[in-house]
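Amino Acid Chain and Its Fold in Token Form
===========================================
Structure side: the spatial fold of the chain, written down as a series of whole-number tokens.
Position: the record begins directly beneath this header, with no further notes in between.
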Amino acid sequence: MKGDCRHKLEHMGDSLVRWLLSVTASKEKTTNPGFSDKLEHMGDSFVELIQSVIHSAVDSAANVADSAEIRQVKGKQKKKVMEIGRHSLRLRQNEPDFFDDDEEIQVAFKNYDELQDAIDRFVKAREERAMRHKKKVFVEPVAEASS
């Protein structure tokens, strides 16, 4: 396929050279015998330029596709890391002594526990405020006086 494309581009370049030669005055050909060689070289340069643009476009499209694949795979990788973390937490709950020998994971668990404690404090404070609000809103109705 690539050779076929090159052949077609070379044919386009040769056609361009023939056209330029036919347009130029015949006296130019006789006074400057290297003129047709220069035009042929121009045609070859044109072909190389077009090929370069095509290869750049193909590479650019491949880079865009690769970038999308990388993002997708990184997302899957992040989900797997989270899954490993959840499994480690369950394992820690079921078998607390399992990670005793690993100091690094003990530090990670300590940091996790501190974060979880902070979340629990905020949730508790929010629930207490919600309960205070409910008590204010849902006060027992005042008995109506009979007339």
